[in-house]
Write a structure and sequence with these properties.
three-stranded antiparallel beta sheet; four-stranded antiparallel beta sheet; alpha+beta; about 375 residues; globular
Length: about 375
């Protein structure tokens, strides 16, 4: 138990005991500093036992009903563990979909043709309006997901809400089958940087959870995400979330206008992140978006990067800083999607899709009337 910390949210005391039932069920983790912390977490904790018991034989992360370690021998960097996943959700046939949706490997062939191309398209007014509609619908979907975040709610339930809200708006959930991603949104909890796969793990009081939504509507993708607070969150976690939101706000306000070099965005973000003692993830960046889910430009969030290009009216792209409490390095789980911090510490993210205008910027995924008010400020 040496080097372990109590798993009660907000408690960082050295662990002195481990749940005996978890040991029997081969559930990794479950360390606590004393009986009081163990008992305080019992209602949520016993749900892990119930889930694990329903599927101890399968030991698969794809099917079944339990929390377990589907990758024997894998060393997790933090406390989060995978849970079972529900079956893939269905999109009605009448809804238009991107080229990768029916592809057996989920390959976005239209994107792949342009791999390495640094040319940045300038959208005309008609194209911008199509993108604007998709972004507005994406925000409506994220509104519904954010309203459901609470202790005890599974990220699979969040995915169900996102999927149904997307389909109700005659949209296709862009993440679904993109390079075979199995769900309709990404839910990244605590030390997960991005691309977390929704599953049967219940959110716990004190968690932070990023929900990343992209919808495809009449040929255009609208992409956004926010990090949300689950119940009562520690000041340490909240400070990270606040700093991350401020990084995005500063980047948009100070950088996005005609004539700005894309490489300058990272300078603004890293400068602010370091004021809080945080680091900027380097493996993932903002990206161009319109009829393609991901395309030029690349928009790194760290300083002294080598991004190509200068902002011009009609350029449409995302800025989505991922800010970590500890080191900036990342590691990917064996599911080939879930990216986590190398040291197991928290990471937060916010994302908006925007278009450069003649005089500045139009944030297409902003909350109507509340562009500068993220959900966590109202929780």
């Amino acid at each position: 138990m040496e080097g372990r910390s109590c798993e009660t949210p907000g408690c960082e005391q050295p662990a002195k005991l481990q749940c005996p039932t978890c040991i029997k069920l081969n559930i990794q983790g479950s360390f606590f500093c004393n009986q009081d912390c163990f008992k305080a977490n019992w209602d949520l904790h016993k749900a892990l036992h119930k889930l694990a018991k329903t599927d101890t034989a399968s030991q698969s992360s794809k099917k079944g009903g339990g929390l377990f370690n589907p990758w024997p021998g894998y060393n997790f960097t933090g406390r989060l563990r995978p849970a079972s996943q529900s079956t893939t959700r269905i999109v009605p046939d009448h809804i238009g979909r991107p080229d990768y949706a029916p592809h057996p490997e989920g390959y976005p062939l239209s994107e792949m043709k342009l791999k390495g191309n640094t040319y940045i398209r300038q959208l005309d007014e008609t194209e911008i309006e199509g993108l604007r509609v998709a972004c507005r619908l994406g925000r409506e979907v994220l509104d519904e997901a954010a309203a459901a975040i609470a202790p005890g709610v599974t990220t699979d339930e969040i995915d169900r809400i996102v999927h149904e809200a997307t389909v109700d708006r005659e949209c296709y959930p862009s993440p679904l089958n993109y390079y075979q991603f199995p769900k309709s949104c990404c839910t990244s909890v605590n030390e997960v940087i991005c691309h977390g796969i929704p599953d049967m793990r219940p959110l716990q009081n004190g968690d932070i959870c990023n929900v990343d939504v992209t919808v495809y509507h009449r040929g255009y993708h609208g992409d956004l995400n926010e990090t949300l607070l689950v119940g009562e969150v520690s000041e340490k976690a909240k400070n990270l979330v606040v700093n991350t939101w401020e990084c995005l706000e500063k980047a948009i306000t100070e950088c996005v206008k005609p004539g700005t070099k894309y490489r300058d965005v990272g300078n603004v973000i890293q400068k602010h992140a370091t004021t809080g003692g945080y680091s900027v993830v380097r493996s993932y960046c903002g990206h161009g978006i319109h009829k393609l889910f991901h395309c030029a430009p690349n928009v790194p969030h760290y300083a002294k990067n080598k991004a190509v290009g200068v902002m011009k009216p009609g350029h449409c792209f995302t800025i989505e800083p991922m800010i970590s409490e500890g080191v900036w390095g990342d590691q990917t789980w064996p599911d080939n999607w879930t990216s986590v911090t190398q040291d197991g510490k928290l990471s937060a993210q916010f994302e908006q899709t925007m278009v450069v205008t003649d005089t500045g910027v139009d944030v297409l995924t902003a909350r109507p009337g509340k562009r500068h008010v993220p959900y966590f400020m109202e929780s």
